[in-house]
Amino acid sequence: MRTIKVSADRNYEIQVGCDWKAALHTVISSHERLLIIAPSFVVERFHLRELISVNVHLFETPEGEEQKSIDIWRQALSSAGSLNLTRSDAVVAIGGGATTDLAGFVAASWLRGISWYAIPTTLAGAVDASIGGKTGINSEFGKNLIGSFYSPAGVFIDLTFLDSLPDRDFSAGLAEVIKTGFIGDLTILDLLEQCTDVKDARLHATELIFKSAEFKASIVSQDFTESKLREILNYGHTLGHAIEKRENYALRHGEAVALGLIFAAELSVQHLGLAPSVVNHTISLLQRFDLPTSYPASALKDLLELMKGDKKNRGSHLRFVGISAPSTPGWMESVTPDDIHVAYERIAQ
User: Fold this and answer.
1) How far apart are the C-alpha atoms of 293 and 231, rounded to whole Å?
2) What is the pTM of this model?
3) Catalytic site residues?
4) Per-residue model confidence as pLDDT tens digits over 132-171
5) Which end of the chain is more exposed for a tag (fewer CB within 10 A), N or C?
6) Range of the domain at 210
């Protein structure tokens, strides 16, 4: 097992390669009561009902982004109220990124904040969503617009969860790994270049997760509330979130982000002097791991409207994170609709 330390609103550890059941047992013994939040299919697959006891309670959610709604959040808070959770109790998320987003926000909302722990069961959850304390739910106006910065008390990454993860979900998680390589850790890109396909990448999962988690932890420790530096973690996400919303979350988060990475790289060619070869490199890596690289040209009007609600915008100005070279992020301020049209041509079909 390897440990990564995070210093934010609270100090906590990310344990990579731990036994999730042993970690959960430690958490159970440390609190009066636990509310475990997990999607129904995770409950079934990992036999979570066996954990229910006087001190451990279970709140089952729908799958994917469906759980990140005001209604589900409200139901989870009702469960917390029915159980009379106090500040000596805790919430535990067992699931993918959507589950950790929801559970973290439930913990942040109840009694103005009780402890919570993340046990991510997907690659995307392990390298991104469970780390950094961004908690929240979706709004009718866009993704993650309701939420708070509220760190977990611990993150436990058990690599055996990946054994049952479908290739599509593993690929989607790799989009976040690829993003991290381009914004900060070139050794990730070197490692991915050694892989010929998703099967190969699975063999390097431990190192890819550790490197990605370590980089995110370093950024979060420097800028917890995203005053600026932490925005680099949103590389590719502005368009990605808009595509997710337009697709009513039928696409995996990483699949939408993959398209956003190409778009953001092409926009970086215009604004930050990025070499066009980097765009080609981005597309090549995404294709290698079965991620999408094109999207309907007719969607741009809808996407422009959706991007107006992005959290990085200031007033009426569209802002994007880009790179001037691999591992050298930058900011693109006041991007015009014409700029967006030109960059979008790279993925338009």
Assistant:
1) 23
2) 0.94
3) 112, 134, 176, 216, 226, 230, 234, 237, 241, 253
4) 999 999 998 888 999 999 999 999 999 999 999 999 999 9
5) C
6) 167-344
